[in-house]
Specification:
The chain has about 230 residues and is mainly alpha-helical. The chain has 14 helices and no strands. The chain is globular.
């Protein structure tokens, strides 16, 4: 029986093995900086996933492609993901995919205008009492608004408010919200606030690589500041 089991394990394809893994493993690889490994898992997972899992897989693939600067392919996958979110009746995430694809094709300013229009049409009191699914979707919409605002015109104060709204609503990847908050605070010359935000990102996701790199940079700059020779030493 053991040898038969081993034979089955050898004949099972990599695609089949990856398709059986939980989608969370793809996000773990992504957070650790293994983009291609994460991409492979999401793609193989998508090949056999039901619609409610297919949409997040395509969503993740599209966002990974953006990070890898494959913008044309990202736009195509955002459109695929939009259609799947429509099928599973998640209109807020469908809108997120639509504006993300629009940013790929037409730039941040047009995408941000459409996103702001959508967010502003939502009654804030209704959002406060909404179910977890809606709050999670709007957290992602506010996160996207913050990121697009930075890319569109560098309005860091406005972006800071948007990402703080995202964090307050909360979602399963809130650590990336804290990381963006750290980057925004660093741009606003609030190094102490940036450091605190990076530490919060690591509190929520200890394996998240990006905040470690930023904390190393902050520490290095602090060391250079305190070890730089004084004009009086020359």
């Amino acid at each position: 029986p053991m040898s038969m089991k081993a034979a089955r394990a050898r004949t099972e394809s990599m695609a089949q093995r990856l398709a059986k893994k939980p989608i969370s493993e793809g996000f773990e690889l992504w957070d650790k900086g293994f983009y291609l490994g994460a991409m492979r898992l999401f793609i193989f997972k998508a090949e056999s996933a039901p619609p409610y899992q297919l949409a997040p897989c395509l969503d993740a693939v599209a966002n990974l492609l953006v990070e890898m600067d494959e913008i044309e392919d990202a736009a195509e996958n955002f459109e695929f993901a939009r259609g799947k979110y429509d099928i599973v009746q998640q209109p807020d995430l469908a809108m997120l995919m639509e504006v993300s694809g629009l940013e790929c094709n037409s730039g941040s300013k047009l995408a941000l205008a459409k996103l702001n229009e959508y967010i502003q049409a939502k009654d804030q009191k209704e959002l406060e009492s909404a179910d977890a699914k809606v709050k999670t979707a709007f957290a992602r919409l506010f996160y996207a608004k913050a990121a697009m605002t930075v890319r569109a015109d560098g309005s860091f104060e406005e972006a800071k408010g948007a990402v703080e709204n995202a964090i307050a609503l909360g979602w399963e990847r809130v650590h990336i919200g804290y990381f963006l908050l750290g980057k925004i605070k660093a741009a606003l010359k609030d190094d102490e606030g940036a450091t605190a935000a990076y530490k919060q990102a690591l509190h929520h996701c200890p394996q998240y690589l990006a905040p470690y790199l930023e904390l190393i940079r902050v520490l290095r700059e602090s060391c250079l500041l305190y070890t730089s020779p004084s004009p009086r030493d020359s």
